[in-house]
Amino acid sequence: DLLEKMKKHGEAVELIRKLIANTVLDRYRGYWYERLSLDLDSHLKQPEEALVAVEAALDDPKVRVGRRLLLVQRAVKICRTKRYNLSAELERFSCRADWDCPTAEDLPTVNISGKMLNREGLTGKSVFQVPESEHNDVVTYCSVEEFCLQHYSTVGLGEGLHAEGAVFNSLLGLLFWEIIYADVPDAFRDPGQALPLDWDSDHFYLARKESIDLRLAELRGMEREEMASEVVAAWLEHSNIVSLVSWNMFQTEERLRGMVLCFDPVSLAAVMERMLVDHRSTRSGLPDLTVWNSDTREIRCVEVKGPGDRLSTKQILWVRFLNSVGVETEVCHVLPLGSKGGLNRSPVKKKSPVKSPEKKYSPVKHQDERPSSSPIKESDNPVKIRGKRKKTKVNFESSLVEGKVDENKNQAPLKKSSKKRVKRVEKVESDDDFVP
In terms of pTM, does the model score above 0.85? Predict the structure, then answer.
C-alpha cells in the first residue's frame, strides 16, 4: 500500500509477486492477486500481464468467494476494453469449468421511495422522513434500513430485525453450540474466549468434519417444530454467555421460536454448512434485514441499498445463494422522492435563457471614405438603463490607431494600451500618406 501511494507501482508489483511466491498468510492471497492485477492494468498499462495474474488467481484454491468474483470482474473489464483488443481472451476465460460471473442485474430487486432529509454538504447515512398514519403532523426520522422495515410491515411482514449477519451467526451458534465449543486441543487457552482460536481458518472444519456433517444431516431430517424447540432450548440454557450468539437480539423466546418456524430445515442447514466450511470468507455480505410473519410462516431476507449505494461482490453471492437454497431474498433500492426512478416526481420546466439581441456593427470606414451625406453624430446619452442596450461612443480615429474595435457589447471593456499615444494626424489624403 505504501509503494502504491508513492506511485511506485513497478516496485509494488515486484513485492506482491514475492509475497505470492511464499506459502505464508494464505488468507491474504486473494487480496494480493487483486492488487497485482489492478497495478498491472490501471497503472502500468500491461493488460496481458494483468490477465495472466487473474488466471493464476483463479487456479489458486486459496482465492475464494468475494475476492474471486472481483478478479473475474477485472478480467471481464480488461477484455471488453476496445483499445486492448482482447475479446478473444474473454471467450477463453468463459470456457473455464469454474467460470462464474453473477451481476447485480441478475438478482431479484424492488424499488421503493420516500422523502429524504436534505443533507447537502453533509456526510454520513441518509435520513428519511416517515409521517405517522394517524397523525400526519408527526414525522419520524429514521435510517434507510428502518424505512425499509416500515415498508415491509405494510406488505404483511410485520416482524423484522436489522441485524445483518447476526441472525444467521446466532442460529449457527445455537444449533452447533456443542461442536463449536467442544474440547479440541489448543482451541481454547483462556476462559474468556468467545470463539475457538481456529474459528476463522480451514482447520476448524477439518478438525470437526465428522461431527459437523452428522449434525447437518440431523438438521435436514428435522421438522420445523423440532428445530425451533432445539434453538429455543439452547437459547435458554446458554443465555448471556459470551459467544457467537447476539443475546439481546431476541427479547422473548416466543419471538425467536416464531422466526425459526419460518425457516425450512433443509434451507437453513445449507446456509449453516456454507458458513461452517469457510466462515472467514462468508462471514460478511449477509442481507441487512430479516422480516417475517409468524402466522403465515413467511420469511424474507432483504439487502438494503440507499441512494448511491452499490452491491459488493460478497453481497451479490449471498443473495444468489440464499435464493438458490430456498430462502427468499431480494435487493431493495430506496430512492428519494423527486429523483430519477422515484415516485411523485413533478416535472420541472426549464426556463430558456433570455438572449438579448446581438448588436451588429458595420465595418468601420475611414472618415474620408464615408459619404459626406451621412456624418456620424455622437450621442449625448451614451448609456441608457432599464433593459435597453448601451450606446457607446466610438472614436474611429483612435480605433484605427490602436487597431481594435469592440464588436461585442457584452465583452469586457478594452484596456488602454500602455504604449504612448501617437499624435493625431489632422489631414490624411491617402493610405500611403498615413504615418502611425
Answer: no
